[in-house]
Amino acid sequence: MKFDKTGLIPMIIQDSESGTVLSLFYGNKESMKKMKKDGYVWRYSRSKKQIMRKGDQSGNRQKVVSISQDCDSDALLVKVEPSGPACHKKKFSCFCDDGPILLRLTKKIAERKQKPSKKSYVSSIIASRQKIINKLNEELAELIEAEKNSEIIWEAADLLFFMLVYLENRSIKFSKVLDELERRWK
C-alpha cells in the first residue's frame, strides 16, 4: 500500500451485498492493523486526529468482507456488511438516502418472511415453494405474451420481484446471483 505524504490512504467503503458505495474514509498503518485484527472498519479521523472504529458511537459498525488495492496501490476498496446506516446523518450511504431498489426489495421480502403480515401477498406465499413457482410461471408467461414496451417493462419487473421472493424462500442472497454473473463475465 502506498500511503500519502501525511501517512494516509483513501478507503472507499462499499456494501458487499448491493455494491453501493457507502462512504469515503482515510486509513493509516495503525487503522489497517486494527481492521485486519478485529474484522471491522477502522479509520483515521482527520478532524479529530485519531483512529476510530466505524460505528462505535452509533452502533452501525461495518464488518469487513474484503480489502483490495487499486492498480496503483494508493487507494483501497473495502467491501463490508453494514449493521445499519453508513452515514452519520442516518442515511443508508453518504452518497444516497435509502439504498438501491434491489437492496430495499430484498430486505422487505426478508422482513415479510420473518414477520408475516396477513395483509401481505408476499407473506402468504413466501413459505410455499410451489406457490412461488406457480407465480414465477405465471409472470414468465405474461412477460412472453406482452406486446407493448410498457407491458414488457411491467411484466419483467413482476418476474424479477418474484424471483427475489423465490431466492428468499431458498435463503439465497441476490448478491450470490450477481457474483455468478460476474464470474461468468470474466
Automatic annotation (TrEMBL):
<comment type="pathway">
    <text>Amino-acid biosynthesis; L-histidine biosynthesis; L-histidine from 5-phospho-alpha-D-ribose 1-diphosphate: step 3/9.</text>
</comment>
<dbReference type="InterPro" id="IPR008179">
    <property type="entry name" value="HisE"/>
</dbReference>
<keyword id="KW-0368">Histidine biosynthesis</keyword>
<protein>
    <submittedName>
        <fullName>Phosphoribosyl-AMP cyclohydrolase</fullName>
        <ecNumber>3.5.4.19</ecNumber>
    </submittedName>
</protein>
<dbReference type="GO" id="GO:0005737">
    <property type="term" value="C:cytoplasm"/>
</dbReference>
<keyword id="KW-0963">Cytoplasm</keyword>
<feature type="coiled-coil region">
    <location>
        <begin position="126"/>
        <end position="153"/>
    </location>
</feature>
<dbReference type="InterPro" id="IPR021130">
    <property type="entry name" value="PRib-ATP_PPHydrolase-like"/>
</dbReference>
<keyword id="KW-0378">Hydrolase</keyword>
<comment type="pathway">
    <text>Amino-acid biosynthesis; L-histidine biosynthesis; L-histidine from 5-phospho-alpha-D-ribose 1-diphosphate: step 2/9.</text>
</comment>
<dbReference type="Pfam" id="PF01503">
    <property type="entry name" value="PRA-PH"/>
</dbReference>
<keyword id="KW-0028">Amino-acid biosynthesis</keyword>
<dbReference type="GO" id="GO:0004635">
    <property type="term" value="F:phosphoribosyl-AMP cyclohydrolase activity"/>
</dbReference>
<keyword id="KW-0511">Multifunctional enzyme</keyword>
<dbReference type="InterPro" id="IPR002496">
    <property type="entry name" value="PRib_AMP_CycHydrolase_dom"/>
</dbReference>
<keyword id="KW-0067">ATP-binding</keyword>
<feature type="domain" description="Phosphoribosyl-AMP cyclohydrolase">
    <location>
        <begin position="25"/>
        <end position="95"/>
    </location>
</feature>
<dbReference type="GO" id="GO:0005524">
    <property type="term" value="F:ATP binding"/>
</dbReference>
<dbReference type="InterPro" id="IPR038019">
    <property type="entry name" value="PRib_AMP_CycHydrolase_sf"/>
</dbReference>
<dbReference type="Pfam" id="PF01502">
    <property type="entry name" value="PRA-CH"/>
</dbReference>
<keyword id="KW-0175">Coiled coil</keyword>
<keyword id="KW-0547">Nucleotide-binding</keyword>
<dbReference type="GO" id="GO:0000105">
    <property type="term" value="P:L-histidine biosynthetic process"/>
</dbReference>
<dbReference type="GO" id="GO:0004636">
    <property type="term" value="F:phosphoribosyl-ATP diphosphatase activity"/>
</dbReference>
